[in-house]
Each structure stands twice: as C-alpha cells, then as structure tokens.
Design brief:
With 290 residues, the chain is of the alpha+beta class. It contains 2 helices and 15 strands.
Amino acid sequence: MPFDFRRFDIYRKVPKDLTQPTFTGAIISICCCFFILFLFLSELTGFIATEIVNELYVDDPDKDSGGKIEVNLNISLPNLHCELIGLDIQDEMGRHEVGHIDKSMKIPLNNGDGCRFEGHFSINKVPGNFHVSTHSATAQPQNPDMTHVIHKLSFGDKLQVQNIHGAFNALEGADKLSSNPLASHDYILKIVPTVYEDMSGKYRYSYQYTVASKEYVAYSHTGRIIPAIWFRYDLSPITVKYTERRQPLYRFITTICAIIGGTFTVAGILDSCIFTASEAWKKIQLGKMQ
C-alpha cells in the first residue's frame, strides 16, 4: 500500500455542497475583512515608524569630552554699551577668567546704546558660575543697567528630535526688561546630562537643565555692589538616555498572525452562535405552527 502523505493534513477540506452560506455570515465576514485591514494598517504604521525609549542611569556619558561642557549663550542688554560688557567664568577647580573673549561677538543695539552678546565657550564639569557683567571694563559705569532678554542658553550638542520635548533651552525668551535696572540677577541651574542614540548607533551628547531665578540689589560695607547677571550651575549625577529604535520584524509578524487568527476565531464563534440561535428559533416557530 503506497504511503499517503496527505494524512498529515490537519486542515481537512469540506466539500462546498456540504456547507451552507448565510446572510449573517456574509455580513460578519465583510466586517472581519475591514477590521483586519484596519488593524493591519495600524500595525504597519507602527512598524515603519521609529519609537524613542528613555532610561536613567548614574554615569558620565561623555567621557571623551575631557571634562568639558560646551555652552552657547545669546543675550541682549538694550541699555548697556558693548564696550562695557564682558563674560566672566569661575568654578571650583580654581578657574577664574575675567573678560572671556574667545568665540564671542558683541552686536550694538539701539544706535549703540545697547548690546547683544553671543558667546560659545566651555566650562568644567564641576559646580561653578559664569556671569555677564562690567567687571572687565577699563572704567566702571556709575549705574550699569542690567535689564536683559535671554535668547538662548544651551549646553552640549543641539538635539532636533521631534518626539523629545526636554528643557534644552529652558531660559529661551526670559524677559527682565521691566526689572530694577540696578538689580543683579541670579539664575540657578541644575544641569542634567542627556544622551541620544539614533538608529545607526551614533551618539549625541547634550544637556537639559532646570532653572530657578531671583533678582536683588546687593550692598557691602563700601556701598552698592556692581550688578551682574549670574548663571550658577551644578551637574546632576543622573543621566537621561534616549534610544531610537524600530519594532523587530518577528514581533510585527507575530502581531499580524494574532490579529488574523484572533479575528477569524471570534467571528467564527459569533457566527456559530447566531446560526445556532436562528435554527433554534426556526424550530420553535415550526412547533407553534403545528
């Protein structure tokens, strides 16, 4: 007797003349097809799109930076001349630099009565401060007006990722034009290291920060202290990491199989229940007629 390989078929076919199509079954079948198509397109959209997951850990992510953080500062002082404005940098490693000028630019405003300061500089990864002041001026003005608008203050690389809404430029648009002209301004910053890894495995290192601020007129035993705009910073030990990834192919295939199988199974149960109930109702009606 020849071996019949068809005996392994677990999907035995029923002849068409032994099946019975129904109107309800046709409606359920059409609804199933639309439902499966909708879920398939939804899953396909999610599979094509990338997702961003985040995690927290304690570490210094950018060990190749030499212990430095790049800073970008853009600030306007509409009532102070450019020749009076300077940038001073201090930290707990002993750095004390007055009148930092590398990679900085001063743009006159209001016919020379004001100034826009743009600077790109680096700070050490230790607590410290940098401040905009008149300390580096050859002759100190009598009443320097420190009212200002901050256009930008950011640390590290610029991240332009649609799904990340972090505080990378938290002081953007800070307006102190209505403040006391003789007041000093303190911005206390808590800097949070941030890492972004894209699909190709490339890393970008940036920093988010939170900010609290105050303004005050300071005095000493010799009189009023020259006002300044202080940015006092400290680094958080917690690093935020964003990873860009795409759903694995095997998970997409598994989900599609689950959608198709589950939909047809539920639809078959529903159709069977409706058909059984319909047949029972017909028998009841026939019994009443007899």
